[in-house]
Amino acid sequence: MVAGCAATKMASQLQSWAGRRQPLKHKALWSSDAWSPKIQKLVDEFAKCLGSRCSKPPVVYFAEWVDMWSAGNWFHLFDRQSDGVYSTGVAGRHFEIFWHCLPDDERLLNRLHGDSQFAEDAWLRQRVREAIDAFGNTNADRGILLFVREPIGATVLDEEVAESILTVPEWVSDICRDASS
To answer: How many independent structural domains does the chain possess?
Structure first.
């Protein structure tokens, strides 16, 4: 969550990139191919820069985690156009960025209501509530919730997790060395 004047600047820039979305040749609603290579590069640079400055104001809340399953049902949080395309999302080659501007007459909070189908969804909803609370604790009149996603691998099966807890991987042995060795 970024608060204040920087939130306005970020929202304006992201919306500018979103507005340059190109029609896709295939039926997918979401693909980085919808943006030019130049915009993809700028999106990736934006995400990396934000990540490197995540502990400095005007960033008022930052959370990061790895989700080996579905990343939660977060798509319902963001605005769509009438054709189903996300109007507040852009994609680079490595990162996707979705955003929501505050204040919003509690639209985002209202989208968080309802039962979570998966634990990942509940975790995400909680992080969003925390970000909204952090914004509420500032005296800023505007903010932007940024959801930066970096897909790093395929979904992990429950069976793979169950199997993995029965052994010690080599990388764990490598980092768990005594100082005398």
So the answer is: 1
Residue 162 resides in a domain: no
Q: Which domain holds residue 131?
A: 2-156
Which of 76 and 41 is assigned the larger pLDDT? 41
Question: Between the CA of residue 46 and those of 7, 11, 52, 82, 147, what are the distances in Å?
Answer: 13, 12, 10, 27, 12
For residue 79, name the pLDDT band (cuts at 50, 70, 90): low
The pTM for the full model equals 0.84
Which residues, other chains included, contact 143 with Cβ-Cβ below 8 Å and sequence gap of 6+?
1, 2, 3, 4, 7, 60, 101, 102, 103, 135
Please give the pLDDT value at position 111: 83
Give the separation between CA 123 and CA 152, rounded to whole angstroms. 19
d(CA 105, CA 126): 19
